[in-house]
Amino acid sequence: MSNMTKLDIMAIGFVDIGEWMIEDGQLTYRLSASDPDLVRVSMEVPNALYAFVENETILYIGKTSRSLRKRFRTYCRPGARQRTNLKNNANIKATISRGATVGILAFTPVDLFRYGDFEINLAAGLEDSLIRRVNPPWNGGALGKAITESAALEAEDDADATATDVGNAELSNAHAHSFSLTLGPTYYERGIVNVGVAASEFLGSDGAPCLVTFQDGWPAVASKINRTANRSGGVRIVGGNRAIAEWFQSRFEEGDVVSFEVLGRNKIRFLTN
After folding, report:
1. Distance from chain centroid for Cα 190
2. Residues 157/81, Cβ–Cβ less than 8 Å
3. N- to C-terminal Cα distance for the chain?
């Protein structure tokens, strides 16, 4: 292992989102209450990195192309053929059983890097470099070889995992607030969205994270709430705007009216009708 510690990876953007626990013999986790807005978004954004730590020691680094919530579900109830999940389930339980705490860190970049017309997956790029540098023991470091979680391992049969979601539940649709907006040129071409004053009343503070989701299953987008761009203080969604524009352009025409729901102070969902 290298001498990189928990503090080192937090310095590049990893945040503490919780810890693993054992309840009734089963692995589960508890999310941190220190910054619930950030934790909630971190659990839902696709293409995230995560790390397991004991005190300052980095035990494991992984990547998910899905959300952390879905990834951690497979750790809690691994299927019989999911070797990676079984190994980490056993390692976490063994560490907790000897009285140690296994903390969970997450890296969910909001700002997207681009090369020409192509978005660069920062999490995927960092995973290889971090694992080579840190060489965490649960990634195979004990054998002198750093091993990453590949897309093939992520595609293991999730049907074997019978766990339901654990952690914080999202706002039910019964409490969602519905609004609409017209796709003017800026919205349609650039995906920069002003949600309006009425919808803004239900959203969080300036600079807080905002998860943008889509009714038809389009990949969720990690954005931020900006309340300084508009004189009214109304929210502008900033971050991941190219992906939002691509969704608009693939389903609507410029000038169409699009409906959306505010599902909580840090989550909105665009509707297809």
Report:
1. 23
2. yes
3. 52
- Residue 28 amino acid letter: T
How far, in whole angstroms, is CA 168 from its chain's centroid? 14
Is residue 135 predicted with pLDDT exceeding 50? yes
Q: What is the C-alpha to C-alpha distance for residues 243 and 199, in angstroms, rounded to an integer? A: 21
Q: Model-level pTM?
A: 0.68
Give the C-alpha distances (Å, rounded to integers) separating 16 from 6, 38, 232. Answer: 10, 10, 34
Confidence of residue 190 (pLDDT cuts 50, 70, 90): very high
The residue length of the chain stands at 273
Indicate the domain borders of the chain. 6-160, 173-270
Residue 73 neighbours by CB under 8 Å, 6+ apart: 161, 163, 164, 165, 166
- Which residue type, as a one-letter code, is found at position 33? A
Fold classified for 6-160? GIY-YIG endonuclease (3.40.1440)
**DSSP single-letter state for residue 221:** E
For 229-238, how does the pLDDT look when each residue is reduced to its tens digit (9 = 90+)? 998 889 999 9
pLDDT tens, residue by residue, 43-89: 988 888 999 999 999 999 998 888 899 999 999 988 877 888 889 99
d(CA 261, CA 259): 7
CATH class for the domain made up of 173-270: mainly beta
